[in-house]
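Notebook entry, structure prediction.
Reason for the run: the old model in the group folder had no record of what sequence produced it. Starting over properly, with the input documented here first.
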Amino acid sequence: MQPCRLRVVSLLAVQPSPQPPSECRWSPDHESCANEEIRIAVVGLGGRGGVHIASFGGQKGVRIIAVCDPDRHRLSAAAKSVESRFKYRPDEVVDVRKLMERKDSDAISVATMQHWHALPTIWACQTGRHVYVEKPLAHFIWEGRQMVNAARKHGRLVQVGTQYRSVSAYAMMAQWLREGHLGKIQYATCLANKPRQSIGKHTEPLPIPPTLDYDFWCGPARKEPVYRDRLQYDCSFTWNMGDGESCNQGVHEVDVARWILGDAGLPRRTMSVGGRFIVNDAGDVWKLEQTPRPWSSDEQVGSAIGSLFHVYREQGYSTKQTDS
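New structure, fully documented this time:
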């Protein structure tokens, strides 16, 4: 973790809370408010932000009061999308800190890249708002803990976007496996063999579009020149802003495994082996990463994304696979 990032988040975490929105708004402790309109702001307007707009805006009793992104092109497009779908136009906000000064929102959804997950979540909790934040929870373990601390300190609801938890089929499967119908689970292996193209490699820095506040987009990450093909999203595959496939897709499979194993605590130890092979591009996060396994088979090699649960039965070992 860069020291500057640590200082920024730690200072914010101990600041006194500004005046929160009115407590008569929706909260788990106010059943009488359950029928009131829930006002939400969507922060981060890429692919997941568009899903958030469609999902939240399409629910009865929910109003998207603002959209927020340092990219003015995305900002305008998102506002037009809300207006076209739901027949009202939300406010357009470049600086997420301005959202926290407002008194007209009950919750925010955070669909930025992960290097921008911690700060809006902490700020929202400090100002009395509930949060839905995309996975992975944070860029670093330490700042993830500060997000949890902020939610608990200020009594806010914070949900992380590991969406399998909301799929009834997965809930039924988890219960069925925990009941021992296949035998005692010995261990789980998670797979995220997701095909990814090269992110490119240039000799000259990528021009920053004039519609983007690049300094604010970098936020707590280092402000560096970009040598890949695309500015947005592919920063997932740089250590400065991302964590690669293990946290981009693998977090879903690990979450299912932990769920079925009974939400086991943190591991006693971890080991990661990998590298970037085949492609020579501007990414520096490992493209191939795995933990050594004691077995292999043709069936497992064909798996793309999912979790394998290894159980012990009287007649020997068996494997149950869950596919994403």
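Summary: Confidence is low (pLDDT under 50) at residues 1-32, 291-303.
The old model has been moved to the deprecated folder.
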